[in-house]
Amino acid sequence: MKGFASSFLDRGRRECVVFCVLATLLVLLRSFVPTYYESFFFDSDQAIVGLMAKHLSDGRKFPLFYYGLNYMLGVEAWVIAPFFWIARPSVALMRVPLILMNVLVAVWLVAALHRRLALRPAMAFIAALPFIVPTPAVGSHLLEAAGACIEPFVYVLVLWQLRQRPLAFGAVLGVGFLHREFTVYAIPALAIVEARRASLWTRDGWRRVALAAAGFAVVWLLVDDLRMHLSGEPLALQAASLRGQMCFAPHELGARAAAVFAHALPVLFGGTPAPLVAFRMNTPLAAGYRAVGWLVGAALLVIFARLILGRTRVRSPGADGGFGAYLMWLGVFAACAYPLSCHLTPGDPPILRYLLLALLLPIGSAAMFLAREPSRYARTFVATAFVLWAGINLFDHIRLIRASAIEPPWNDHRVLADYLVNNHIRYARATYWDAYKLAFLTRERVTVASVDVARIDDYQRSVDAHADTAVTLARQPCSGGPTVASWCIQPPAR
Q: What is the Cα–Cα distance from 400 to 403, expressed in whole angstroms?
């Protein structure tokens, strides 16, 4: 009997390794187009993170926060900077640490769902598919080098691991919150899961809460002190900036909340057709299908009906549903908080980076369902729906790879960057969406100041100091000077 159990465990470990490798390969496949084609999904927002990483790798600056903002700790730049020490800065190299974090999260989900919910590795892999193979738009956003899109997934998984080590938990929460406020969803999600355990309400439970608060406070005070030394500005500006981005007006909130279910979540899950160009992706393709929306909706309806009505039970004595519930509630809070942003306009394409953690809702709920559901037919239906859902998303990724190989995304910023470098133009002015992208693509051999939203003051001062040689890069239709790609190179004003 002991030999059989050992053989079974070994077989389970081998199966887990196989599905973790498969998850890794699928993440690499969905990462190909935004990594290989530099013009597919790269803009000035992401270029600023690249410039921050370059400045750090050159030893010129320590970017504590995203340039020009009072929030969003510069963790992305710190992670990318070592890669810029190794090789020449490029869009593809920027993506490498983000791809590695995507792989980490995918493997972590499969392994943790297998271990904590006593799911077979195949079932854990199926439950994690909404993250492993999302739509092309979502997959690209998970590699976006701005807005901290993949990092909150890492933070919330680490916080689960540290829930019994409160001081470290609070410290990680502090870093995660200062990096991207979405990390705070872990608090109510964990509170709901832990509330069912009597230990939360004991003296030891309150001691853990106090230690976590102390860890958070230490990180806040250290970052505040560092910020005061670097810029002379208090960290309280972070809270003020976040408050300024939240809108609670009832007449607006209702419409934005309705848009979450009518438009935002269907787009996130691939349940409605959406052109990728609407998400700043350089391709004519559209992705998403109404049939997928009905399929996913039916699967989630079965899952929640069975979970809520209490028709499920733990099928394995080793299963712990806490981790699945934690993931599910994280997704719920991400969806509920989404309408609070002032940047949302009902009817416009959703801001996916604000909603990405909602991917954990189907993952956590499906994992709990598959671990508890006694009906083989119900489990088969849900598992089949998730596989079909991922298969359709994978089909769209393959379509995108094929279309990009046949007709690579036109890279007009690269054409202009090469022209400026080859013609020894050192200073220029352009709009925000051109300025920092060109500065990064030229590896700062051309300093480009922004004529509208300025994020890097050094560029503004440098171009002003060389105004007699600084050209203006005007978008066509325009006049004056040679035309390159979509721009006129207008000479300096005399």
A: 5
